[in-house]
From TrEMBL:
<keyword id="KW-0472">Membrane</keyword>
<feature type="transmembrane region" description="Helical">
    <location>
        <begin position="46"/>
        <end position="73"/>
    </location>
</feature>
<feature type="transmembrane region" description="Helical">
    <location>
        <begin position="79"/>
        <end position="98"/>
    </location>
</feature>
<dbReference type="InterPro" id="IPR010387">
    <property type="entry name" value="QueT"/>
</dbReference>
<protein>
    <submittedName>
        <fullName>QueT transporter family protein</fullName>
    </submittedName>
</protein>
<feature type="transmembrane region" description="Helical">
    <location>
        <begin position="138"/>
        <end position="165"/>
    </location>
</feature>
<keyword id="KW-1133">Transmembrane helix</keyword>
<feature type="transmembrane region" description="Helical">
    <location>
        <begin position="12"/>
        <end position="34"/>
    </location>
</feature>
<keyword id="KW-0812">Transmembrane</keyword>
<feature type="transmembrane region" description="Helical">
    <location>
        <begin position="110"/>
        <end position="132"/>
    </location>
</feature>
<dbReference type="Pfam" id="PF06177">
    <property type="entry name" value="QueT"/>
</dbReference>
Amino acid sequence: MRVQGMSRTLVITQAAIIAALYTVLTIFAASLNLASGAIQVRFSEVLTILPFFSFAGVPGVTIGCLVSNIVIGSDIFDIIFGTLATFIGAVGTWYIGILFKKTGKNFLKFLSPLPPIIANTIIVPFVLAYAYHVPDGIPFLMLTVGAGEVISCGILGLIVLTALFPIRDKVFRV
């Protein structure tokens, strides 16, 4: 089986590396109390840009989120719906990457962080409100979670995208 010209072994290997990096970065953020709660900036969310380059980023960040949420002791609803938000965002970013490869339109690179920002901004506040009983209202939680996502996915993610873009063929064997 080949995905985007990649062998199954390569996809699995890259996904495993991405998942491991995501987990380590989330644990680090958790040690600084930044991985959960109304105000969160998960450094690991920077990796949600990787599906732009390769399908391996989709299972990589999804599994990384799942494992991270289990390891840091998240509520079961956070484990399920937080992982779902990451998966939705990863698929959206992957799709934007496909559109970029087909059209070569540079503006798509700058849209690539939007799917994880939007997915997490919509889903995570409900998890915080209903699973963790965070007393702030949903609109406020959307603002705070969205701000954290803009920092990690938008700003830092685009820095990573810009750094990896010139070497993407070597790193991801696109």
